[in-house]
Amino acid sequence: MRTMTRNDLMLLLGFAAVVLAMPIWLQPFGAAYPDLLQRFMIFGIFAVGFNILFGLTGYLSFGHAAFFGVGSYAAVWSFKLLSLDAIPAMIFAIVISGVFALIIGYLSLRRSGIYFSILTLAFAQMSYNLAYSVLTPITNGETGLQLTINDPRYLDRVFGDAMPGQPVPTLLGQSLGGFTGFYFCAAFLILTFFIAQRITGSPFGMMLKGIKSNQTRMNYTGVNTRPYTLAAFVISGMYAGLAGALMAVTDPLAGAERMQWTASGEVVLMTILGGAGTLVGPVLGAWIIKYFENIFSALNDSILARFWSFLPDGLDHTAVVVSGKFVGEGWFLTLGLVFVLIVVFLPGGVMEGVRRITTLVSPKSKPPASPESTSPQPQPAE
Amino acid sequence: MTLLKRGLSRRRVLQTGMAGIIGTGVMPAIFTKGAWAQEFCNNPTGDTVTFGLNLPLTGAYAEEGADEQKAYELAVQHLNGEGDGGLINVLTPTALKGNGILGKKVAFVTSDSQTKSDVARAGATRMIERDGAIMVTGGSSSGEAVAVQSLCQELGVIFMAGLTHSNDTTGKDKRRYGFRHFFNAYQSGIGLGPVLGQEYGTDRRAYHLTADYTWGWTQEESMKAATEALGWETVEAVRTPLGAGDFSQFLTPVLNSGADVLILNHYGNDMVNSLTQAVQFGMRDRQTNGKNFEIVVPLFSELMAKGAGANIKGIFGTSNWHWNLQDPGTVAFTKSFGAAYGAPPSQAAHTAYVQALLYADACERAGTFYPPEVIKALEGHEFDGMGNGPTLYRAEDHQCMKNILVVQGNDNPTSEYDVLNIVQEVDREVVTYDSAIFGGDLGPAEPAPLC
Predict the structure, then answer these.
(1) ipTM confidence
(2) A-proximal residues of B, 99-118, CB under 8 Å
């Protein structure tokens, strides 16, 4: 039986503690409400999976949102046709997105570099357009696929408990709304983080890293790299499918927008912002972007006016007008600035910043027990 | 230490991990359960009550969203006894006192729904879970309305739909917690059909371009039914993606199809773009089958008419309401909206404002914010004075039954707001239909879900 190193174990436990305590430490940031916490978990999983392909193997996919969307649609169809229970829906979603990733991966992985990126982008955009306007009987187009009272739900009918009232997804009869849904997603984030950690440390992970650093040399030494890249692609697609399924579990509506190229670009941003190639980085990136998206976009002029009210008259008005450009509809501007600053000054993402602070705080080679920030320990695995 | 030097086994990690998850994860869930155990979702305990405004501030329907926001701000002012009181003075019967709702001041939070169903749901969830919204309202797209409405039913929060015209909102996808004041595509068809027959004759060939989502689908269906009843023939109905921007690829085939009427089932920016492009293609100057080629826009609004400029002259459509009506309600609303923002309100603003007032009035009459009681107060409520004549909130499908307007683009506008002429006010009796024709199920009001 393979074992974990002490560092890996500490990282996993620290990560789990930070994640599970989120409802407490996010309170001062105004982000400790179930819906956003669930999104933190879901996009964390999405980014961890994406990092297996991008950070570990070095293949930049610009179409990962397609697998996310396929996972969502598969899960909602499972709710409609089979059962309102989350477990069949998630299995179904992971299998479907895995098969989908196998097909797209098989075709796209014939090329590498920019050609691979463009191929995945093309496939994702195709899937988006199919979902948006061609396959409307399956996806319900712009309106979005939803649950209705009259869905067949064959499995549920077999066991004879036709749900009264509005159908909502459950886990063995327990409703998955609110904080229950958050802990459900959190358990999966920790589990997927653990799996990603094991993959990174495994011989398979070493092969992937080898492909990233020099694929040609790998080929010359007689290794056929295609099965490895394809496996990484499929695993990563299944991660995305799982995230998409969780999205449908916590909010049973699947819309085509989540397959759009902007959604694919978002996960790339998350990974780079947090630190590609690290384990914790992509998750941090996902949290930062989702925080901006949900909190900054909700600030409006009246909130800003209250915030700047300590300034003298006239000046406070100017402050509201200027800062108003960066919040609300303008939150993309803020995100863009943050992204530029990070890429210019910390090319390794937030994790590089954490690492630099750590070395500043303790010049000794051994990292301290916990860094000053709320983030878990840096990941020395690269 | 020996154990750690050799590392931990996977089994050990899983065991400890699971214990940790159960320990830290489940315990707070048990503790917080007590904190959430209130009588109903977001029961207002302080001295304010919060409305959640879910508005499309970006995307194809952004203009409507911005106008709705103005209307809601005005409604909140009037409910709190500020300003000139607006429609509170003319609503009959009314329980509103101008001191907030049930003595609590009204506040609001907003969220940009980006004209996307997914985002609208996320925004509504945030406003309910974090900001404690007692009621969610707004929206300018039926896709959003249907999505947010079912979410509100799950969370036990009342949804007062903004501008949504799809038959599904109070038909196939109706919900016990969702209410719509706006009219629907079916009523547009009933109102517009006879006028089209009178103006364009009974021997026409129609080509539909349809926004590809719930509203477009149902409007296409209703317009087909209405025009085919006149004896018109439907050549083809083509679906176009929402927010397409460029419609030329869909317009070219129209020219060679042998159709002599183009029905644009588009709204907002989409309609402005498709109509402008259709006019640029020279469609309005064409002769087909020996008749003048005509364009029909079944759902019209002032904002769109303004955006399309001279292109809308003479084009027929329907509206829920128009600021140029002469009843006391319309006059009062146009006056206070104009005083606040310097422009007459659009129909989107009107329906938004009225919905906010009707919710407040229902709470006052019910004497509580408890949703099932408020629902009872709204169901079957008959009122007057809001600009559409006597209106009934039908209990069977939560659809308002009231007069609707057939309008036509103004040939000689006297100002930039005077863009539509009212051709006919279609009586409520005429546009009333059997609520059973669209199916659907409202679902239960009680037990009220705890969000």
Answers:
(1) 0.77
(2) 109-112, 116-118
